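Researcher: Last one for today. Full complex below.
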Amino acid sequence: MFNKNRTYEQHDNEKISFYKSSVEDLNSQDQLTSDIDADICIIGGGLTGISSAINLSKKGYSVILCEARKIGWGASGRNGGQLGIGMRKDQYTIEKKLGLRHAKELWNLGLEAVDDVKNLIRENEINCHLINGVLSAACFEKDIEEYKFEIEHMSKYYNFEGYRFYDKLEIRKEINSKMYLAGMLNSGSYHLNPLKLTIGLAKIAKNKNVKIFENTPIEKIYEKSDRVHVVSKKGLIRANKVVVACNGYLDSILGSKKNKFIPINNYVVATEPLGEKEAREIIKNNYAVCDTRFIIDYYRFSEDWRMIFGGGETFTSNFVKNAKSFASNRMVKVFPQLKNIKIDYSWGGTLAITVNRLPHFGTLMNNKVSYAFGYSGHGLALSVLAGKLIAENINGHPERFKFFSDINHMSIPFGSIFRRPIYSSAILYYKIRDYLNS
Ligand SMILES: Cc1cc2nc3c(=O)[nH]c(=O)nc-3n(C[C@H](O)[C@H](O)[C@H](O)COP(=O)(O)OP(=O)(O)OC[C@H]3O[C@@H](n4cnc5c(N)ncnc54)[C@H](O)[C@@H]3O)c2cc1C
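Model: Here's the assembly. Have a good evening.
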C-alpha cells in the first residue's frame, strides 16, 4: 500500500500507464515565478479545468490554470475512455428524484456533452481514436427486464432510439464471454484515448493564451476584498474569479465541500497488443463494455488493440502499490482465454462519487469561486460540459449551471473521518451481493 499526504501525490508509486506511453506530455513552459493578477484562476488540470479554461478564454477573460502535477495527471488521463451520454444513473431514477422536467434538462445536457466533445475532436483534429458504441452487459436476471423497460421508457418519453437490446445468444456473439445474460447497446456513446483528448484540449487552451502552470500545487484560497487570493509556494495569484476543478483529488481547498463526495480508487490494466483479428474474436464490433455490477468491470480495445480492462476498487487513502492483480484477476474471470496474455501496464486513478451519483456544482465566496465535481465515474463528457456551464455562470448566465447546482446533495456525516469507512461498508455489502448474484 502507498500513502501520501495529498491525494495528487498518490500515483508516485507507479511506473507508467498505457495512456502516458501513447502521447507526449504537454510540457507547458509557463512558470509562476512571482505574484500575478488574472481575471480567472483555475485549479486542476483535468478535463473540468481545461474545458473551463477554453470556454472562459473564448469569452475574453485572462486565464491562469494551476495543476499540482502534469496536465491529465488525474482521472482525466487515467480513465476507461467511455464517453457516455446521460448521467451515471438511469433517467427513470433521476425523474423520481428531480421530476420529469428537470430530468429531461439533464438528459439534453448529457447529449450536448458528448456532441461537444465530438465537435472539439473534429474541429481541432485531435487524434484520440474515437469509436462508436458502448455495450452494457447484464450479470443478473433482473437486468433483462430493466433493459427492456429503459429502452421503452427512453423511446416514449425522450424520443431516444439509440438503445438496442441483445438477448443471451446475441450478447455472446458480440462479447466472447460466458458471463453475460443479455446486453444493451448504446449507440449514442463512444470510446477514446482520454489522455490524448486531455492533452489535445490543453493545447487548444494554450493557443488561446491560457497560462498553464504545471507542478504548481495550490495550498489554499481566501477572499480578500473583491478578489480571491490563490496561494502556492511559487507565488500568489490574485484573481477576480476562481474555478476549483480537482474532482476526486480535492483535499481541503473548498473546506467541508469535500464531504459531499467519497473518493474511490479504481484500477486498470492494459495487455500487450493482441492484433485486430484476435481482438475482434473477443469483442466483435469493437464496442466498449461495462457490466451491471455495483463494482463494475469496464473494458475496451485501445487504438493498438490492447485490452484496456478496469475494475476493482479500494476506498482507503492507501493506494495499492501494484494495481496489476486488482484488475487482471477480474479480466481473467471474464475472459479466461486471456490468462496467459502479458500485462504491459497497470495503473490506478481516483474519482469522486456523490451519494445520489449526480455531479455537484456550486459557488462559494459570493459567487467568486465556482466548482464542479462528483461525476461518479461518468465524467469524461460531463467534465467537458461542466467547464462550459461554469464559464456561462461566470459570464452572467447561470441558467444551465443551475440545473446542476440546484440538485440537493447529502453530506457524508462527519465526512473527514467517516467518508471512506462508510463507503467501505457499502462496498463490502455490494461485493457480497455481486458475488452471490454471479
Ligand atoms: C480509473 C478510472 C476510470 C474511469 N472511467 C471513466 C469512463 O470510462 N468514463 C467516464 O465518463 N468517466 C470515467 N471516470 C471518471 C472521469 O475520469 C472523471 O470524472 C473526470 O476525468 C474528472 O475530470 P476532472 O478534470 O474533474 O478531474 P481530474 O481529471 O481528476 O483532475 C483533477 C486535477 O486536479 C489536480 N489537483 C488536485 N489538487 C490540486 C491542488 N491543490 N492544486 C493544483 N492542482 C490540484 C490533480 O492533480 C488533477 O490533475 C473514470 C475515473 C477513473 C479514476
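The chain has a mean pLDDT of 93. The first helix runs from residue 18 to 22.
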